[in-house]
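@here heads up, posting the sequence + SMILES for the flavin mononucleotide run so it's all in one place. Ping me if the SMILES looks off, I pulled it from an old spreadsheet.
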Amino acid sequence: MEDKKTILQYDVQQINHLIRNRRSIKPEKYNNKREVPSFILDEMLENANWAPNHGLNQPWHFVIFKGEGRKKLAEFQANHYKTHTPIEAFKQGKYEKQLNRPEKATYVIAICMKRIERTRIPVVEDIEAVACAVQNMHLTAAAYGVAGYWTSGGVTYTQELKDWLGLGAADQCLGFFYVGYTDAPWPTSPRKPMSERVEWVG
Ligand SMILES: Cc1cc2nc3c(=O)[nH]c(=O)nc-3n(C[C@H](O)[C@H](O)[C@H](O)COP(=O)(O)O)c2cc1C
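bot reply: prediction finished. Complex structure tokens:
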């Protein structure tokens, strides 16, 4: 019989490396001719499901745009920009970016938080749990050398998007997670030393 006290052991050096080298890589850097296989997406989603969450609410909900579905998202967000931007502020380049971006990725995932009925868990904690789920997805992608990027720009916080995604009044969209392969060198990102962010009491 297996000893219940068995300590699971991991390659901590590899985990440290993965966490520190996970990067946000924008879709403009993707090679959209090389598709990310669905088994990688499946693993990203499965790992998302194992994120910590208060009350086991599992508040994450992902709407995945792939293939032709990416065009629907592209048209929705570009059209939203056009119809909600005053003529004098309208920028053709920004419109085209909204229209072209989704098809640069293999998958674009709308990151949503869905409230369960009569939960006593504060909404901020459901949002935090979804962010943890996204981090699990992002780390899994990075482990496969797949690029990921969370954006909260554009239509993210609009009522029109909520309606389009079929979200309820208490639910929220928290952005879009782009997934694709990149041929560009894996980027670096700066961080201030952790010592500046920690206070010790004791
Ligand atoms: C909730 C959230 C929203 C974000 N939204 C944007 C965004 O709209 N535009 C953007 O350029 N980056 C966005 N990012 C990515 C950050 O710019 C990125 O994480 C940061 O630059 C650090 O880079 P790294 O992820 O490669 O370490 C977002 C990240 C998070 C967590």
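MO: The pocket of flavin mononucleotide is lined by residues 23-24, 150-153, 175, 189 (CB under 6 Å).
MO: One more: The radius of gyration is 19 Å.
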